[in-house]
Amino acid sequence: MSIFNLLFLGTCACDYSPKLKEEYKDKFDKDARRSSSIIIDGKYLVDCGPHTLDSLRIAGVERTNLTALFITHTHDDHFDEKNVQELVDTVPNLRIYINENADINIQNAEIIKMKTFTPYCCEDMTVTSYPANHRQETAPQHYLFEKSGKKIFYALDGALFLHQTYYALVEKEFDTLVLDCTTGDYEGDYRLCEHNSIPLIRLMLPSMKTVRMITADTQVYLSHLAPSLHKSHDETVKICEKFGAKVAYDGLKIDI
To answer: CA dist 178 to 84, 116, 154, 246, Å?
Structure first.
C-alpha cells in the first residue's frame, strides 16, 4: 500500500521548447518539458511556474482539489505571479508555503512564511524546508515531506548541498529523492555553483549513501533538466541508469 503518490507536472529548467505552444500544447512529451512542478497526493502542489496550470489541465487534476502550494523559490520559472494569483482566486482556502525571507505580492492569500529546519504540520504530513545552494535573493529552499514514516526530499535549483543542510539530512534515509540535474553529462559548465550536472550527481550519490541520507532502496529521480544541455530523454535514461538514477518526465506518476 502506497503512502504518497507523486505526479511530475513539469521537469524542465528554463529553456522551454517552442513546440509547447502548438504541437504539445495539450499533451505531455518527454523531450518538450514544461516548467518544473510536482503534485503530491493530488492536492499538494510544489511550485507554480508558467506552464503549471496547463499541466494540471493536461493531467486532469481539478484545481479545486488543491489545498496547499509550496514555493521552492521566486525565480519566474518556479513562481509565476499571475498563475499563482489565479489559483488563489479560484481555489478556496489555498495556503501558500514559502521561505520567511521571500517577498511576494499575492492578494487574499494565506501565506505561511517558513523558518528553515523547522517542521510544519500540513494536514496529514509534516513539511520541513532546508536552505538551498542557489541565488539567495530568491529565498531558495528544498523540501522534506514526511508521512507515516515515508520521506520525499525535493531538491531542485541548487548545486550539491549547503554545509548546514547536508549535516541536517544525515541519516534521514529518504524513500524518494528528487534532485536537480540542470546540466548534462559533461564538465566545465559555469552553472556548477547553482545547479547539478550528471558528473556531479555521480559523485554525490555514493557520499549520500555513506552518511545514510539515501540507501540502496531510495528511488532517485532527476528533474529540472535543461534540454539544450542534455541529450534526448531516452539517451539520458541510459546514461543515468548506470549509476542508479531515474530521469523524471512530464506526466510521470510514482507511488511511495
So the answer is: 23, 19, 5, 10
Structural domains of the chain, with CATH: 5-255 (3.60.15.10)
What does the CA dihedral 131, 135, 136, 142 come to, rounded to 10 degrees?
-20
**Strand residues in 94-140 grouped as ranges (E):** 95-99, 110-114, 120-122, 125-131
* Grid coordinates belonging to 1: 500500500
Predicted pLDDT at 36: 98
Does the pTM surpass 0.85? The reply is yes
- The set of residues, in sequence order, having a beta carbon less than 8 Å from that of 214 and lying 6+ positions away, is 173, 174, 177, 205, 208, 220
Tens of pLDDT, residues 223-253 = 999 999 999 999 999 999 999 999 999 999 9
Asked if residues 179 and 201 have their Cβ atoms less than 8 Å apart, the reply is: yes
